[in-house]
């Protein structure tokens, strides 16, 4: 397990971008769950810059989002559209910031038979719910990236336990 401590938002955004880019370079048709809203904007800007400067392609990537804030998904879609990338959204739903509800939604998604390379949720509890659903379904969770938001106690503990890969601290005052 690798724990990354970042000095500031820009460093955090770049580290998150590096994780996503590594996955996409290794598997160009990855299915990614992507965070929405303002927290990951720096990461998306790094993706756009990399695409323009290095030609990294996201054209075969599919995503699904567990959206919790009205407008976050639309903001993400607008950012990705502006980058010129073609993204195939395969799953979006509202899990009410709830781990159990996110778990049930991911179980429903798994019935589609689509593969999963990355799960990103707008809070740590939902990321953990998605992880639980995948683990119960027999997926090798070590081969799937799990990213959350809030840097909650449970999210940080999951990272220390080698399960969740990433969380982003977002102060309640910024929401």
Written account of the structure:
- It is globular and about 40 Å long.
- It contains 6 helices and 6 strands; from the N terminus they run H-E-H-E-H-E-H-E-H-E-H-E.
- The strands form 2 sheets. Strands 1-2-3 form a 3-stranded parallel sheet, covered by helices on one side.
- Helix 1 packs across helix 2 (41-54) and helix 4 packs across helix 5 (124-136).
- The chain starts with 8 loop residues before the first helix and ends in a 7-residue tail after the last strand.
- It has 175 residues and is α/β, with parallel strands linked by helices.
- The model has no long low-confidence stretch (mean pLDDT 82).
The arrangement of helices and strands along the chain is HEHEHEHEHEHE
Name the beta content range.
Answer: 5-15%
What summary fits the major beta sheet? Answer: 3 strands, parallel
Secondary structure: number of strands: 6
Oligomer: single chain
Structural class determined from secondary elements: alpha/beta
The CA-CA distance between the termini, in Å, is: 30 Å
Residues in helices, as a percent range: 40-55%
Rg estimate, integer Å:
15 Å
Shape, please? Answer: globular
What's the helix count? 6
Provide the residue-averaged pLDDT.
Answer: 82
| Order of strands, widest sheet | 1-2-3
Q: Poorly predicted ranges (pLDDT <50, ≥5 residues)?
A: none
């Amino acid at each position: 397990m690798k724990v990354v401590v970042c000095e500031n938002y820009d460093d955090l955004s770049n580290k998150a971008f590096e994780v996503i880019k590594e996955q996409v370079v290794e598997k160009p048709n990855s299915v990614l769950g992507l965070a929405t809203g303002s927290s990951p904007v720096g990461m998306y800007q790094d993706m756009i810059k990399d695409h323009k400067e290095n030609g990294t392609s996201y054209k075969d990537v599919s995503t699904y989002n567990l959206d919790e804030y009205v407008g976050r998904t639309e903001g993400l879609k607008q950012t990705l559209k502006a980058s010129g990338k073609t993204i195939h959204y395969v799953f979006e739903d509202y899990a009410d910031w709830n781990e159990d509800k996110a778990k049930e939604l991911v179980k429903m998604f798994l019935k589609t038979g689509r593969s999963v390379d990355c799960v990103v949720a707008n809070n740590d509890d939902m990321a953990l719910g998605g992880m639980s659903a995948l683990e119960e379904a027999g997926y090798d969770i070590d081969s799937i990236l799990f990213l959350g938001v809030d840097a909650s106690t449970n999210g940080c503990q999951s990272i220390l336990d080698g399960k969740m890969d990433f969380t982003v601290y977002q102060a309640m005052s910024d929401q």
